[in-house]
Here is the input.
Amino acid sequence: MRNLFTTYRVLAMIVGVLLTVLVFVAVPLKYLPADGTSLQTTGDNLTSLVGVAHGWIYMVYLVVSFTLARRLRWSWSFTGLVLLAGLIPILIFWVEHRATQKVRAEHPELAAAGV
Here is the structure.
């Protein structure tokens, strides 16, 4: 269980960082500079690369998060929040923090193990 939770936390951070970079750096660079400029080209390339990486890693995040949620018997509403958090920039960081607090409160044996 500890490994699954650690995997969830790592994936949440990766998905969060990728989505933040995509929304606040890559997309503005793609659409704000004039067409054909080096900044616009960089934004276009970055959007493609980061967007694909976020999509694939988000799918893994969904599977790991759902598995964790069922094993820890989280409510359906909290599970839904955890699953959707990877689609809204910055929200995933707050949700991961709340999930960590929840696990530490409800499963002290995991907290004692250093999770």
Notes: The chain has one domain: 2-20+51-112. Residues 2-20+51-112 form one domain. The radius of gyration is 17 Å. DSSP finds five helices and no strands in the chain.
